[in-house]
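User: Write out your own:

AI:
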Amino acid sequence: MQKRAILAIVLTLLFFLGYDYFYLSKFKDTNQTVTSSQYDAPVAKSNVSKKAPVEEQKSVITTINSRYFKATIDELGRFNSFVLNDRIYVDKEGKQLDLIGVNASPLPLEIRFSDQEINKKAFEVPYVANSANLDLTSGDQTVVLTQDLGEVIVKKTITISQKGNYKLDVSLNKDLEYFISSGMRPDILADRMAINGTLLREAEDKSLEVIKDGKVDKGGEVYNDIDIISSFDRYYATVFYSFNSPLNVILNENSNANQVFVSASGDFSVNGFIGPKNKELLKSIDPELIDIIEYGFFTFLAKPMFSFLSYLYNLTGNWGWAIVLMTIIIRLFLAPLTIRGMVSMNKLKDVAPKIKEIQEKYKDNPQKMQQKVMELYRQSGANPMGGCLPILLQIPVFFAVYRVLVNAIELQGAPWILWIDNLADKDPYFILPIIMIFSMWLQQKMTNATFQDPMQEKIMKAMPFIFGIFMAFFAAGLTLYWATNNLLSVLQQAVINRIIKKKKEAEEIKKADKEVLK
């Protein structure tokens, strides 16, 4: 029984670590360093001309102010800063977050031409803006940017809304091939707790594909008929979307983050968004944009689970209590599996001494030993997989919850009670991890497990501390889920123990009555 319990725990840990290693993006929590090669026109299995050498940081020609953000457009017609205004969007120094890195390349709305000479001019000749300041407090505003390259005149018309979404129209006086970028992914929270990369949605069947950072084939990759492109980190994204005219997308390799371009010729139109992956915000812009919230392999479970968590938040008005309620409801939903597993583990514990006797008695006859063991299982109703299988079946649910709580930007800056003032950050006093350790230890005591192998005993007794330390630096919202889940496990174990105790007492009374009748 102990071996199977250890197996279940080890399988869970292996699944967790394997999922992290093979599925999550490699990360580097620094802004991209611009090199001359980064200014080449996109290479996607074709030969195109090279970009001009790296230019100095360009001056701002238009400033945009909104209730939600402040953005600037530089003299090459690109967003070169996008600062979120809300108090919850701050870095460790307390500065408001800028979703566009100082050295990121390419910047949103950057154009690169296939023609080498034109391309060189495009990075030397500044755009002229028809407005130096846009105030979005009274509604959407439009700025027209014009770049005169001699034989080629480029005009960008940007209509931007206060929520961070915009419409871009590009017009050229000549029908030339060029590439326009939605920008690099934000580099705010590019960590192993989240998936970082590029999400593409296929226009026809709405299927999603995530290309993790560093996983683009050498020479680039081409994707046709795409209606949503999202370059994202844990909480934030830069997006192009076009539901009426699907886009042809080129991804270029980069050591830190994918470079994203859309190929165009002549006039071109697209919608865009820069900002947090907040479900309600995205829904208010366009419900289809909700698809950019990526939960990984368990998206099919995580999306409805987050909708349910949001519903509970609307009832309670507090994300912490919503997590507690969701944990209780999930626990009740999984109770039949959990109880079955606990009962099976108890039966296995009861027959463990008899199995040991059989193993000693028939150690020279493995076939006979196996036959006797299986016969004992049938007589006792014990199932060797009964305790392990229910745990394994719950893994997808646990990982879906993990993805929801790690990726939900709604938890950023959201308080629970007392010492927890940000559910997206770790517990500052490690109280929840301590509760986790204590509750796991208590549950072990309540199972009254006996160990024949001293090594098994050491491993099992160390598990609460291993899990507690493992979870100590995770987001408090996730630790709250596990701590609540563990406390419910203790309660459930107490109820099961009481039921089993009463059942055994009843069996003993029945047995005693039979002896008296004899």
